[in-house]
Fold this sequence. Notes:
The protein has 303 residues and is of the alpha/beta class.
Amino acid sequence: MREPHPRIVLGLHRSSYQPCSLAAALDLGIEAIDTAFNYQEFTAHQTLARFVDLLAEFRVSTKVGYFPGPSGAIHSLDPGRLRYALEKTNQDLGRTPDLVFLHNPEHTLAQLAPGQARDCLTQACTVLARATKEGLCGAWGIASWRPGPLLGVINGGAPRPDVLMVRSGLLVGTDTIDAAESLARQWNLPAAAMWGMSPFGGSATDPVWGRLNPRVFLRPDAAQACSPIQAAFRAAYHLPRVATVAVGSDDPAHIRELIDSLGVEADESTIARYRGLLRDQRTVSNSSSSRRASFRTGAPSST
C-alpha cells in the first residue's frame, strides 16, 4: 500500500461498486470514498455494506436530499425526510458515516421565495447539525452543483457546515467559482474544509481534453512531464481553491496518474490571469445581454 493521499476522495457516482475497484484504490493510498443516498437507484449504501471488511478501511462521506418518487428521484429538504435518510443511511451502511452532505439544496431553494428559502435552508442545516451531535454522522456539510442560489439565503443564525463541496476545474464557470469562495468566506470555512468534485466535467475521456493544453496552468519546470489529464486535475484545486477533490474512476491506472500529479505545483500567476479572463468574459456577456434587452424594449442601455 502506498502512503495515504488525503487530497483525493474516490467518488462513487458512476462506480460499478465492485470490491476489486475499492481494494485497488485503497492499495494506491486512497482512504476516503464519497457516495449518496440516491446513488445506484438508492441501493449504494446496501451494496457497500456487503464489503464490510473493506468498507471499514475507508472514511465514508455520503449525501442526503434526493428520495424515491413515482417517476424517479425527487429532491426535498423536508426535515422529516432528511432525518429518515440519515437514520436509514446508518442502518444500510452498517456503520456511522464520517461525513454527510446536504445534497444540492439549491434544487429546492430555487423554487421558493427568498424568505421561505432562508427558513428552509436553516431547518435543513439544523437537522444535519443535530444529527452530528447525536452521533448519526461524524460531521456534516453542503454539496452544491450550483452554489450561487445559496448566497442570498444564508441565515446568520443557521448552523455552519463543516465542509463545502462544489464543482471544480477548468470547465467550471466563473459564477460558480466566485459563489463557492464567497460562501466559504461568509461561513468562515478554513481552507481544509473546501472540497472539489467533477474535475473533468464528468469524463476524463471527453474529446475536450484532447483539444486543450492544461499544462499552461503548471509551473514551466514541471509542465512537460505531466499529461493533459494530470495538468487539468492539478488546476482543479485552484478553480475554485479547494484542499480535496472527489474524482470517480474504476480504473486504477487513472487514479495512479492523478496521484502522481499531486507533487506538481500549479502556476499561480497563470491561474490568476485565467480567472481574470473568465470575469472579463462574464462582464462582456452581461453587457451584450443588456444591450439586446434594451434593443427589444426600446429602453436606454446602462452601458
